[in-house]
Amino acid sequence: MASSNPCSNSHESVHSSPFASRYVQNPTPKFVMPENSMSKEAAAQIINDELMLDGNPRLNLASFVTTWMEPECDKLIMDSINKNYVNMDEYPVTTEIQNRCINMIAHLFNAPLGDSDVAVGAGTVGSSEAIMLAGLAFKRKWQSKRKAEGKAFDKPNLVTGANFHVCWEKFCRYFEVELREVKVREGYYVMDPFEAVEMVDENTICVASIFGSTYNGEFEDVKVLNDLLMKKNKESGWDTPIHVDAASGGFIAPFLYPELEWDFRLPLVKSINVSGHKYGLVYAGIGWVIWRTRQDLPQQLIFHIDYLGADQSTFTLNFSKGSSQVIAQYYQLIRLGFEGYRKVMQNCRDNAMALKEGLQNTGRFTIVSKDIGVPVVAFCLKDRSTHDEFEVSVMLRRFGWIVPAYRMPKDAKHVSVLRVVVREDFSRALAERLLVDIIKVLAELDTLPSKNAAKATALAKDEDAANDSAVKKTAEETEMEIVNAWIDMITKATKITCC
Ligand SMILES: *Cc1c(COP(=O)(O)O)cnc(C)c1O
């Protein structure tokens, strides 16, 4: 999609910022493809140089997505980078490897499979595509049933918590399903199963439970949801199913909390998605969706491609894609095995706990993540009267750390939090350094005037100016001005000893 945003400086020529290296003296092409070729060295250098300004992925604590794999697997990935996954006939081994992954993950999620049964699922680009597919399956199933009963089938809805990931909204908008949100509230940031079941009616295609909330890593109680919904289904005669969005939790719970019932052990759970590229420990570009049984995936959605007499079935949104990620997932599954995954996840949990305790010891933070959940540490300032979480986030950036600050969903929007995702490559040593840097930031913030005070002054100034010129600034312009003034102030007022 070409949603190019030709920056704000539209007066700039299409070539800007002359790039001077030993290879080229020409400006960097930005909008129009250059007329002539350049040498491969020059092209590589230009791009490399610009990419240096991206953040360091390893220090990006905002993301759940894998940033480190073993060199052996990096090599496997490069070796298969030229294989199109969709050419199932040409690359039958890759197809077979994907099917093995689906089987292994289905077993991990306790799908009701006999020894020789083949699991039903699909490899996708990530959980988002997986969720589109699972949602489509529910919608189609619901529609077919309504049609058969001679009932209206034009107002499907889906119930989920306000802590949903944006891809659920995407699904609902793209595929015309009403999104019914269960509100969250201060102190309770996941879907309340009682309220969710209240919202279910005959047009509900499924209840989506988030197993590992993006906001604070918390697991929703799928078991309670299942039990309440069983009761409601029995009373109403409906058969509303559950989907579990286990994008991050799907590779945590089976290893750390095997006794926790959230998966196909619960009868109403008909499909589950998981991101292979989160705690599945593969680089970006792989997700999985698994259905409970063949009956839970409407056959009309499956495309059968006849390749030289062999029937290949596919259910994906796109056609071509790389094979590397599928191969990398298989590598991790067999390289680590259950034991290896458990150790990695235990380490992540231990490091998260160490960070959590360190933060608690400062006496300055309230922890809003849970000990049982995805290994993230989400925390907010106890005292926000002078400084807020956004300022902590900005100041940590100067040490190289990317720690996001964001607001909780609607109805708890006044709560903002900082969140650190503890991934495999975030070692204890890094956790300790981060803590040291957070303490430095706190000490520094204590010496700075409150942003609220700066805000008040700026607002007053702004009002004066507005009165003078009778031109009102938009709220956004005012906000930007305050932020800039504030950043200016801290840059001038202080010198941080960076390490
Ligand atoms: C990350 C995430 C998604 C989206 O997953 P992608 O693999 O990035 O497409 C969906 N739901 C939840 C709960 C997530 O954490």
From TrEMBL:
It catalyses: L-glutamate + H(+) = 4-aminobutanoate + CO2. Pfam families: Pyridoxal_deC. Belongs to the group II decarboxylase family. Residues 1-21 are annotated as: Disordered. It comes from the Eukaryota. The modification N6-(pyridoxal phosphate)lysine is found at K278. GO terms for molecular function: calmodulin binding; glutamate decarboxylase activity; pyridoxal phosphate binding. Its EC number is 4.1.1.15. Its cofactor is pyridoxal 5'-phosphate. The keyword Glycosyltransferase does not apply. The keyword Lyase applies. It comes from Cucurbita maxima (Pumpkin). GO terms for cellular component: cytosol. GO terms for biological process: L-glutamate catabolic process. Keywords: Calmodulin-binding, Decarboxylase, Lyase, Pyridoxal phosphate. This is Glutamate decarboxylase.
